[in-house]
Design goal:
Layout lengths: L9 E6 L5 H15 L3 E6 L4 H4 L7 E5 L16 H13 L2 H15 L3 E5 L2 H10 L2 E4 L5 H12 L4 H11 L27 H8 L6 E5 L19 E5 L12 E3 L15 H10 L11 H15 L14 H7 L18 E2 L3 E5 L6 H17 L10 H9 L7 E2 L17 E13 L9 E18 L8 H6 L8 E6 L10 E5 L4 E2 L2 E2 L2 H9 L8 H14 L6 E8 L9 H18 L9 H5 L4 E6 L4 E7 L4 E7 L9 H29 L18 H11 L9 H8 L6 E3 H8 L14 E3 L1 H21 L5 H21 L4 H14 L2 H5 L4 E6 L7 E7 L2 H18 L5 E3 L5 H4 L3 E4 L6
Parallel strand pairs: 1-2, 1-4, 2-3, 4-5, 6-7, 7-8, 14-18
Antiparallel strand pairs: 9-10, 10-27, 11-27, 12-13, 13-18, 13-19, 14-15, 16-17, 19-20, 21-25, 21-26, 22-23, 24-25
GO molecular function: ATP binding
GO biological process, one term: carbohydrate metabolic process
InterPro entries: GalKase_N, GHMP_kinase_C_sf, GHMP_kinase_L-arabinokinase, GHMP_kinase_N_dom, Ribosomal_Su5_D2-typ_SF, Ribsml_uS5_D2-typ_fold_subgr
């Protein structure tokens, strides 16, 4: 610091509350700043002695405040990711506004010239709000760490990372993205007590020997250190080992009170840069420095993830870095790349056909297959950990060098003509944005495929080569092997189901013909724990019945679904579509579509699938404007379309349709006869009825879908004719049947009629209006109108009897957040919410502005809901491609028993 300009400055130094390592490094910088005549205020959660043991000066002030919790760890290297995020939310996210207000006031009161952070992000934002220069002096930033946590904890926690970046772009010295202007300095540790030469002499280390320091804060004792871990001529100094731990001859155990910095080179250059910055001098990093390129790599990484299925939304303040990088993101020799023939390679597999589209769940699924295959190798003696993994290992044929051929025409390649084939397909769940239970009444619906998806791997083998589980082997007839279906479901411990299922495919045949669907239903209903298999095995029967396919080979199927069950996001549809896609491509050779599960099959990322359910006419895809975002938040109340509420509402709607058709038929009869009916429909007098009026009555008398009746005709002519409710017995006596092949009427039950009939008629109108509004100019009016339509839908569900305390609470929380003073002052962030799918629990869909504040408000809603109910809801965020858009992969595993 000699030769620096003499001026007393005030530094506010914020130090993370995670461990003592940061504090001990900061001590040395502080000591040099105070020696130069400056005043340092340390804001920390660490004990005072950590700072005062080296520096006892009137220029040092310590303020005990914990503003950053770091990571929650079981030991030095084991991090509890979920606990870390939860603790940070409680420490810094929820009280952020009050923290900022307090820190801004304090910084002004001490008249700070510079704010330094290691590395407390909120300190940078507070400095910016107070109009004070700020820098970060650290060896890493928590955004790197937390970004990895979010991958494991859930995408909805991404807002925490954006908040970090938002704070870290505030330092005067730094520009976007976070830490883009970085100045490399040598390693900073506490000052030395002994020279390098004296330490080596005391420890008996020769000048010719290389020294490695083995030290980690709070490292566990008992680690097994082996002589062969070090190269020849190296010595390792071990800190913090237990007294009874034995060491090889090339490892030296240091005493407990050994002063670690004496074994490490020290430097004091960081203090000079901080002093110069506080005085207004700018230290810029070299344009090609490693640190600056690391900052660019962060942005580039997020940019490269902006591909179909990833749906990464990058805040506007990243645009500068993106523009700067745009000229450097092309692949080498990009013009000659041919995706149809290119073999892409990774650590686990080579893709010979198709594209994983950067979807982490797909990569994880194929990786799990590779790990299972590798563990099943004769050369590998490791035991699999779960019953499901054991079952898969014993079910799939891993021989023939483990080729996984997912071609769509069953043609085997020349190089691998003897190898078994396995198909992998992927189908997402769906978030019901608008339409819901109006689908069976023919409504327009808008559905968004979720980020969460189901994967299915399927392999077929000749019965003589098929690997069977032992109990399935017992069933094989003596005259020769027969075709068997074996299914494994990953994650069975999360639901009330068995992990495995198997059956002889001959069970699907009776007298040479496929059995009826009713017999199949009874077949799977015998064991509640095995009923889940109907979603998978049922696709086989559908192909046998509808397309005349006969299955002579045995089939092995692995199902792994990331779509949460019972949340109203079509977990069962995802399984059905993924299975059918795999079966069709692998066994039939021509995809034919799955009409009942169109959202999962035909949806695309960042778009809404618009479909008229009469029975399934796809109108096309609707772009979600970049200013708008949809989320789903789970109420924790298990949803089931098989529940009695859903069925009774459906029965009531079909009853209403039958009553409307009957009333129109009666009126048409009297109209054609020029006789006044006892209950004349409004607007139709037989004395002056014209041809158009009679045609309208004729149309309504043959009404195929309720949604083909307009809202104004319903109100004018039929609303008062529908009873609020009606017993099954009364209905059957007058109308015979409700004409719904899916449900049956219980004569002993009373059914609501008017509300279930009204809902799809008005919902169809709401969805049409919603679709039109999405293409309107972005504004608060657009968002408010979209949100109002969703609220109306929600309350209509409740009128039908399909609400629940949990979903109502979540919708009310959104309303409270929307109309809070803070939201109104910001122009609004969340604008509407509604229950989804079959209702009676499940997930609530929320619409809001696509911004950081919306994510923060979702976290607050989640916290309030947990406080009130004890349940921490799962948040669905983002989307991914449907099964058709994803296609299929043709891959070859690297980990085969013969490679």
């Amino acid at each position: 610091m000699v030769g620096s300009e003499k001026k007393s400055l005030v530094f506010a130094y914020y130090v993370t509350g995670h461990g003592f390592g940061h504090a001990t490094r900061v001590v040395e910088v502080i000591r040099h700043l105070i020696q130069a005549g400056h005043e340092v205020h340390v804001v920390t959660g660490a004990p005072d002695y950590v700072y005062t043991i080296e520096t006892q000066s009137p220029g040092l002030f310590i303020r005990k405040v914990l503003l950053d919790c770091g990571a929650v760890q079981a030991d030095a290297l084991t991090v509890d990711r979920l606990a870390s995020l939860e603790k940070y939310i409680q420490t810094a996210v929820l009280p952020r506004d009050s923290i900022l207000a307090t820190e801004v006031e304090w910084l002004k009161s001490v008249k700070a010239d510079l704010v330094i952070s290691d590395v407390v992000p909120v300190a940078c934002r507070a400095a910016a709000d107070a109009g004070i220069r700020a820098v970060c002096c650290t060896n890493f930033s928590w955004d790197f760490i937390y970004a990895d946590y979010v991958m494991a904890a859930g995408y909805h926690n991404r807002s925490i990372i954006w908040q970090y970046f938002d704070c870290l772009l505030k330092p005067t010295l730094l520009a976007v993205p976070a830490f883009r202007d970085v100045i490399d300095v040598p390693l900073v540790v506490r000052r030395l007590h002994k020279t390098r030469e004296k330490v080596r002499k005391e420890l008996g280390i020769l000048d010719s020997q290389k020294v490695l320091i083995y030290n980690f804060g709070g490292q566990p004792a008992g680690w097994k250190l082996k002589k062969e871990y070090l190269p020849e001529g190296w010595i390792c100094l071990v800190c913090g080992s237990s007294e009874d731990q034995e060491m090889p001859s090339n490892f030296i155990k240091l005493p407990k009170d050994f002063y670690t910095p004496d074994a490490i080179a020290a430097s004091d250059v960081a203090a000079r840069i901080l002093q110069d910055t506080a005085m207004g001098k700018h230290h810029a990093s070299h344009g090609l420095s490693g640190a600056r390129r690391l900052g660019d790599a962060i942005v580039l990484g997020y940019q490269l993830q902006r591909i179909t299925g990833k749906d990464i939304v990058i805040p506007e303040w990243y645009s500068l870095a993106q523009n700067e990088l745009s000229s450097r993101t092309q692949l080498p020799n990009e013009e000659v790349l041919d995706n149809s023939s290119l073999t892409r390679e990774s650590d686990y597999f080579a893709i010979l056909h198709g594209d994983h589209q950067g979807l982490p769940d797909t990569l994880g699924f194929v990786k799990s297959l590779a790990e299972i295959q590798s563990t099943c190798s004769p050369q590998n003696n490791n035991k699999l950990q779960t019953h499901e993994h054991l079952a898969v290992g014993a079910m799939f044929n891993w021989e023939k060098e483990g080729l996984f051929n997912f071609g769509q025409n069953n043609k085997k390649t020349n190089n691998y003509h003897n190898q078994e084939e396995i198909f992998v397909s992927r189908a997402p769940g769906r978030l019901d944005v608008m339409g819901g239970i109006a689908d069976y009444s023919g409504s327009l619906v808008l559905q968004m495929p979720t980020r969460e998806a189901c994967h299915v791997a399927i392999q077929r083998n000749h019965p003589s080569k098929h690997k069977l589980w032992k109990h399935a082997q017992v069933r094989q007839p003596k005259e020769g092997p027969t075709a068997v279906l074996q299914i494994v479901s990953f994650g069975s411990e999360l639901g009330n189901r068995g992990p495995t299922f198997d059956m002889d495919l001959s069970d699907f045949v009776e007298d040479g013909q496929p059995i009826t669907y009713e017999k199949a239903y009874n077949y799977f209903a015998r064991d509640p724990a095995q009923k889940w298999a109907a979603y998978v095995a049922g696709t086989i029967l559908v192909l046998m019945t509808e397309l005349g396919i006969r299955f002579e080979d045995s089939i092995s199927i692995l199902v792994s679904s990331g779509v949460p069950e019972g949340k109203g996001v079509s977990s069962s549809a995802a399984i059905e579509v993924a299975t059918m896609t795999a079966v069709e491509n692998h066994i039939v050779g021509a995809p034919c579509g799955v009409m009942d599960q169109m959202a999962s099959a035909c949806g695309e990322a960042t778009k809404l699938l618009a479909m008229v359910c009469q029975p399934a006419e796809v109108l096309g895809l609707v772009d979600i404007p970049p200013t708008i975002r949809f989320w789903g938040i789970d109420s924790g109340i298990r949803h089931s379309v098989g529940g009695s509420d859903y069925k009774s509402v459906r029965v009531g709607a079909f009853m209403g349709r039958k009553i409307i058709k009957f009333a129109a038929s009666v009126e048409l009869h009297y109209s054609l006869s020029n006789i006044s009916s006892p209950q004349q429909i409004n607007g139709f007098n037989p004395d002056n009825a014209d041809e158009d009026g009679k045609n309208l009555l004729e149309t309504e008398a043959s009404l195929d879908y309720l949604c083909n009746l307009s809202a104004h005709r319903y109100e004018a002519s039929y609303a008062t004719r529908l009873p609020e409710s009606l017993s099954g017995q009364e209905f059957v006596e007058k109308y015979l049947d409700h004409d719904d092949s899916v449900t049956t009427i219980d004569k002993e039950r009373n059914y609501a009629v008017r509300a279930p009939t009204r809902h799809p008629i008005y919902e169809n109108f709401r969805v049409k209006a919603f679709k039109a509004l999405l293409s309107a100019a972005p504004s608060n009016y657009q968002l408010s109108a979209l949100g109002e339509l969703m609220y109306q839908c929600h309350f209509s569900y409740s009128a039908c009897g399909l609400g629940s305390d949990g979903t109502d609470r979540l919708v009310n929380l959104v309303q409270e957040m929307q109309h809070s003073k803070s939201s109104e002052s910001e122009g609004g962030t969340l604008f509407g919410a509604k229950i989804t799918g079959g209702g009676s629990g499940g997930t609530v869909c929320i619409i809001g502005r696509n911004c950081l504040r919306s994510n923060e408000q979702l976290l607050e809603i989640r916290r309030r809901y947990k406080t009130a109910t004890g349940f921490s809801p799962y948040v669905f965020e983002g989307s991914s491609p449907g099964a058709a858009k994803f296609g299929h992969l043709k891959i070859r595993l690297r980990f085969s028993s013969k490679e």
